[in-house]
Amino acid sequence: MQKRIYINNQIRATEVRLIDETGKQLGVLPLAEALNLAKERGFDLIQVTERLEPPVCKLGDYGKYLYQQEKKAKETKKQDSGELKEIRLTFTISSHDLETRAKQAEKFLQKGNRVRITLRLRGRQNALEGYAKEKIEKFMEALAARISVKKERELKKEPRGLSIIVVKS
Predict the structure, then answer these.
(1) Would you say residue 1 lies in a domain?
(2) Angle at CA of residue 94, ends 90 and 99, nearest 5°
(3) Which is more confidently placed, 145 or 6?
């Protein structure tokens, strides 16, 4: 959800702290004076933040300001710790398939994603939880042989099996 950006006559404050188009502070001015100054210079009066008293307003092109905000939002989204990808193992997985899944997990980790490794337990398999933990440990060893990883979340028993989250260290 985006916060609403107020411009020109939408601003409700009586006084505003004004910053001009070059970034220089002009001080605290009455709203009418700030609007006139913006009109004279051919810019919009954009309310940057309302948290302060008086609110901070900036002279500038509204469309350009929105574009810059979108660009910043995309940059911060890219810098996230990455998507959470999932590798599913089965109780009866063969060693070759384990290696194949380790390769896939390595690709995800190289791209900067986090990886959740899950092993689903069905029916009587729930009674053999120790064997399932060994399978996940074998997978972790195969993965550690390819790339250095650290556990973001330890091995956890969930209603339908076991899971662990790893990231590239």
Answers:
(1) no
(2) 95
(3) 145
- The C-alpha torsion from 104 through 107 and 113 to 114, rounded to 10°, is 40
What confidence tens digit (pLDDT) does each residue in 70-100 have? 888 887 766 555 788 999 998 888 989 999 9
Identify whether 160 is part of a domain.
yes
Residue 44 belongs to what H/E stretch?
strand 44-49
CATH label of the domain that carries residue 50 = 3.10.20.80
Compute CA 98 distance to the chain's CA centroid, rounded to the nearest angstrom: 30
pLDDT given at position 1: 42
Q: Is the pTM of this model over 0.90?
A: no
Question: What does the block give as tokens for 111?
Answer: 């791209």
The answer to the question of residue 40 being in a domain is yes
